[in-house]
Amino acid sequence: MNPTGNTILITGGGSGIGRGLAEALHALGNQVVIAGRRRQALDSTTAANPGMKSLNLDIEDPAAIRAFAAQAAADFPSLNVLINNAGIMRPEKLLAQQPDLADAEALVTTNLLGPIRLTAALLPLLQRQPRSTILNVSSGLAFLPLALTPTYCATKAAIHSYTLSLRYQLRATQIEVLELIPPYVATHLMGGADDPRAMPLGKFIAEVMEILKTQPTPAEIVVENAKGLRFAAESGKFDAIFQGLNAARSDIR
């Protein structure tokens, strides 16, 4: 991924990692378009970054995604980078879950079906560009789950698997498929903004941007803080890390 000269769409770009990526890429001179459901967050971000654009997107609604993709293609015909970042994270007590599995279904719809549907809707536009990139944001928890958030971790594992297949199917095209694997980052997701155990958002974004600017982009963008989770199985430490992580987050019984 060339870090400059792009028209970039970032879902969930009004807060957290999405906003951090949007501002860093905007500062490099890219045309950045952020999308999400919360108009106030979008407006706050664009107001702080003159020239950045925003579009409303209900990532849970298949019809809204198709309409959004058509609007994005009309408004930004040079769009060549899609960053699937929007996501939600909720704790689940599996012995006391809702009969309708509302939380689990919302997580699957937003975190997994949303990126799949949006990617499918925008592939024709991306294929028309001389070069383009799809960057899916998964999580270190895709590789070693936090038991407190089982469906979230499962959706991120599925995003990792989907990304591998998407990359293989697009291997003969000009579309590059990448995966960003964050660690626990200090955002408002699950109240992590004030948790000293979380990686500061600014530090995370700076390390990601350094990788993008100085290296031939690896298929997986993994900052140092995420490597313990990402490579837990390969290191032979999966069980120990799993037990340590879940003992530390003993919010669930």
Descriptive overview:
- This protein is of the alpha/beta class.
- It has a 7-stranded parallel β-sheet, with helices on both faces.
- It has a single domain, classed as 3-Layer(aba) Sandwich (Rossmann fold), CATH 3.40.50.720.
- The chain contains 9 helices and 7 strands, in the order βαβαβαβαβαβαβααα.
- Helices cover 45% and strands 13% of the residues.
Features:
single chain; 253 residues; alpha/beta; Rossmann fold; seven-stranded parallel sheet; 7 strands; 13% strand; globular
Write the layout of secondary structure elements.
Blueprint: E1 7-11, H1 16-27, E2 31-36, H2 39-48, E3 53-56, H3 62-75, E4 81-84, H4 102-127, E5 132-137, H5 150-169, E6 175-180, H6 201-214, E7 220-221, H7 227-230, H8 232-235, H9 238-248
Parallel strand pairs: 1-2, 1-4, 2-3, 4-5, 5-6, 6-7
Helix pairs in contact: 1-6, 3-4, 4-5
CATH homology group? NAD(P)-binding Rossmann-like Domain
Biggest sheet character = 7 strands, parallel
Widest β-sheet, arrangement of strands: 3-2-1-4-5-6-7
Helical content, roughly? 40-55%
The end-to-end distance, rounded to whole angstroms, is: 43 Å
Number of helices: 9
- Average pLDDT reading: 95
| Binned strand content | 5-15%
Number of domain units: 1
